[in-house]
Amino acid sequence: xxxxxxxxxxxLPLATLQIPRAAPMYIKCDAxxxxxxxxxxxxxLRCDTLFHNARLATMATAAHGGSDGGELSLGxxxxxxxxxxxxxxxxxxxAADASAIDARELIDCGGRLIxxxxxxxxxxxxYAGDRAHEFERRLAGESYESIARAGGGIVSSVAAxxxxxxxxxxxxxxxxxxxxxxxGVTTLEIKSGYGLSLIDERKQLSAARALGQQxxxxxxxxxxxxxxxxxxxxxxxxxxxxxxxxxxxxxxxREGLCDAVDVFCERIGFSPSQEGRVCQAWxxxxxxxxxxxx
Length: 294
Known about the structure:
single chain, six-stranded mixed barrel
């Protein structure tokens, strides 16, 4: 991952090089020597690594080589170079316009595409157990609501998640995170919502924070304690929302474990008025969000 030099805070955006694992791509250079790419005109640039012979998606609509007309423009540069210094992007542009660039390492991209890092804004990455058998029922035409009312869905994941340790949640979630990183994700949101108690929601969110520390990725955590009614609160949705608003939410917010709050507002979830109570209780810097029909 390469952090854009204009965003040194480490939040957004990031860039990832999408190259098939089997493709030969690295040309190693002697550490005592540099390789030069570009025109000798203009000031010489120095960098640690230079990606060249690349297609670049800059997302700048006026960029060289960008599409026009009614099509979505990615600000694409067909024959571009991207220079990195100290882990930051120091130069992006067409190869034809580049000044001489001295690089300690050259990477020939072979015409492959470099894009900004992808953002996955809605994930339930941290959980234990699985619901693979429910996919067969969905493929057979059964609705999620029907499965949930029969004891499946969210509630079926709660018991396994409650029984798991934080270390187990981290261990089981790392492969899922690694799969996202391999696809170019550099920022993702991770919701809780399979604990449905203060102790277990804390465990999920703490595991999510740990994932962000163990991998080069930005993790935004969302408290989704209002995801479903836990078994011990069956038929007592107002009492459970009171627990969320008066204990779970303020405690985990004070502990710095949640960046946002979410509510599953649906016939099998919570009502608009209950959603409003959670939103009013949230005192964080971001607005609470509604989770629509999943």
